[in-house]
């Protein structure tokens, strides 16, 4: 298949593109490059790339593709809180426009990177895809709105599918330090402490970036009736853990590290345990295989091997800090559009 992947230079896209190419797909990427050079270790080989802001996509960009995998977004709660209106512009409006243009261009399948945080506060019971959506942040709200608006476009020629990913973990050449496991392993490697700022009680479903990539790769080629206008939680019940359990796993993986639960941020309202049976039933043989313990050990090895530093960890590998640095340098304007080189710093 000929596949356009938006946000392919992000944390997940950088892991997903090689999986799609290995499956024989002809992949083109589209990205505004906010994190293109945020690399730890050897640089990946990017596919042919459209350096385009997703807000500026035209039908021409989308012509000739069988499928679109839409990852590009301001991709977490702190970023959403930074500028809620820009989050809605990029994550909601531009995503719905992208889907409409893709449909107009004859694209038949549209796989959307949604999130389990659409469930907000789910309590102790396992939440299925039929649970009420209670988004607690602009980021999560933007994902719910896209699901609603793009589902309304589904017809016999256009099949959207909404993959509600658990919180990702694991190594990517374009690393992120602001997701819980990657963050705790980094702190442990750099400081010897696994420092938890909440009280440790919230439930967090986790999934390895490679298991997310595998879910998208399988949804791409699944029979249409299995994925048409469906939402799937992506992950495994085995990785529904509390933050305190995640911290203990990290301490086991990083030699000499000890857990410190400061509790200074109190309880976190975002807490949910997730049921992942629907994706296993719909996508034959799909299983999220990576345990949190294996992911923590992998991260510890890679961080150590590629020489993670504290300034990179809190700087370019932390999305909010990275965007603030680009804005301060004049490389991004107030709406987070990249500026031509000649305009920067001027
Ligand atoms: N990482 C997770 O834990 C997680 C969990 C659930 C869902 N998701 C979703 O998966 C997708 C990918 O996540 P990620 O962790 O790789 O995020 P990321 O922040 O690492 O990457 C996002 C990519 O989108 C690009 N982008 C952002 N705004 C853009 C714009 N206006 N135009 C063009 N490109 C733009 C960035 O340059 C970047 O390469 C996102 O939609 C995210 O919401 C991620």
TrEMBL record:
Signal peptide: none annotated. Residues 3-235 form the NAD-dependent epimerase/dehydratase domain. CDD domains: SDR_e (cd08946). It holds the Pfam family Epimerase. InterPro entries: Epimerase_deHydtase, Lipid_A_modif_metabolic_enz, NAD(P)-bd_dom_sf. It comes from the Bacteria. This is SDR family oxidoreductase. It comes from Rhodococcus olei.
